[in-house]
Design brief:
The strands form two sheets. Strands 1-2-3 form a three-stranded parallel beta sheet. A two-stranded parallel ribbon has the order 4-5. The protein has 14 helices and five strands. It has helices at residues 18-31, 43-46, 53-69, 87-96, 101-105, 108-116, 123-126, 128-137, 151-168, 212-220, 237-249, 252-263, 269-296, 298-327, and strands at residues 5-11, 36-42, 78-81, 143-145, 176-178. Helix 4 (87-96) packs across helix 14 and helix 10 (212-220) packs antiparallel against helix 13. It binds tryptophanyl-5'AMP. Tryptophanyl-5'AMP binds at residues 7-11, 19-20, 22-24, 42, 45, 132, 135-136, 144, 146-147, 149-150, 185-187, 195-196.
Length: 332
């Protein structure tokens, strides 16, 4: 039986963090042996916020290096840069003709951008979910490993696939978000304000490039409040956040000890945070070092990305050919 097709991407808008790792890359690595995987650096998506042209290459190469340093094997997957696969943009335009302004304006991430950057509400932001659908449908993927924040975008990609199929004929399968656990993941920030992020909450986000001391400092500053006074009292959001992070990072026997200590009020949050910080350091340090080495070897990264783009274009051009034919762009 042929392997199921998987697509996912990460925007090159900053340093990768534990949210990107546990929401996305961790699943990429687990999927790479059993699925036909296409993973990419979403550099076009990063342009909606107008990054400095001088920074672009470094950002793209760092995201690629951090993926590989986290265990992604470019021999097993196609690892490429979005802008190296122009077929995506043609499909993007074709899907734009099947997508309505009203539905795009209702997307929560768009509404959030309108609030946070009213001076730059460009059409690329509005049609962001269409480009994302094109990224996925260009390989006719069925599984998309992503974090919880991408759920709505995936629903839109399914709508676009169905709309195309109904209008022009069956071509695209429905893509679903994927996580090995039962639910999609949202890794909280250390200050309890939303999630870890590449560009916001920088002091409450643990980056894969953070050094040991930075990780210690950020973690010790995490909000915890006062120790519980009544046995088995319910946890505040801040404490729940700390436990959520601990469940990702720490040996489960130790997590259970802290849970029991919370329940019987003997917990010391300072000790808990120290434990969490050391576990995060143990996890991040080897990735940080491998990624730094890889970024020094530009020739190797270039070769990997070019080979990845070739694999991706082979698949993308087949889909595009079939798409054009169904639409009737088939003149000669
Ligand atoms: P991006 O670059 O914001 O994030 C990359 C991946 O990391 C996940 N993620 C998180 N997961 C859990 N907790 C967090 N705190 C957290 N922060 C980020 C995201 O869910 C994502 O899986 N639009 C996408 C990029 C993209 C894409 C695609 C993804 C473009 N085309 C096609 C899948 C398929 C984005 O901005 O992700």
């Amino acid at each position: 039986m042929s392997k199921q097709i998987v697509v996912s991407g990460i925007r090159s808008t900053g340093f990768l963090h534990l949210g990107n790792y546990f929401g996305a890359i961790h699943n990429y690595v687990k999927m790479q042996n059993d699925y036909n995987c296409y993973f990419f650096v979403a550099d076009y998506h990063s342009l909606t916020t107008h990054p400095d042209p001088k920074d672009l290459k470094q950002h793209v190469f760092r995201v690629a290096a951090e993926n590989i340093a986290s265990g992604l094997d470019p021999e097993k997957v196609a690892l490429y840069v979005q802008s190296d696969v122009p077929e995506i943009l043609e499909l993007y335009f074709l899907l734009n003709t099947l997508t309505y302004k009203g539905e795009l304006e209702k997307v929560p991430t768009f509404k959030e951008k309108v609030r946070s950057q009213p001076e730059n509400v460009n059409a690329g932001l509005l049609t962001y979910p269409v480009l994302m659908a094109a990224d996925i449908l260009i390989h006719r993927a069925v599984k998309v490993p992503v974090g919880k924040d991408q759920e709505q975008h995936l629903e839109m990609a399914r709508n676009m696939a169905n709309r195309f199929n109904n209008r022009y004929g069956e071509l695209f399968p429905e893509p679903y978000p994927f996580n090995f656990g039962s639910e999609l993941i949202k890794v909280p920030s250390l200050d309890g304000n939303g999630k870890m992020s590449k560009s916001e909450n920088i002091n409450a986000t643990i980056y894969l490039a953070d050094d040991d001391e930075t990780i210690r400092k950020k973690t010790m500053k995490a909000k915890s409040g006062l120790s519980p006074e009544q046995p088995n009292s319910s946890m505040t959001d801040d404490i729940q956040n700390l436990f959520s992070l601990m469940r990702l990072m720490t040996d489960e026997i130790i997590v259970a000890q802290y849970e029991a200590a919370y329940a019987d009020c003997s917990i010391r949050f300072g000790d808990m945070k120290k434990q969490l910080a050391e576990d995060m350091i143990r996890f991040v340090a080897p990735i940080r070092e491998r990624a730094a080495d890889l970024q020094k070897d530009e020739v190797r990264l270039q070769r990997i990305l070019k080979e990845g783009a070739e694999k991706a274009r082979a698949s993308a051009s087949e889909t595009l050919k079939a798409t054009r034919k169904l639409i009737g762009i088939n003149y000669y």
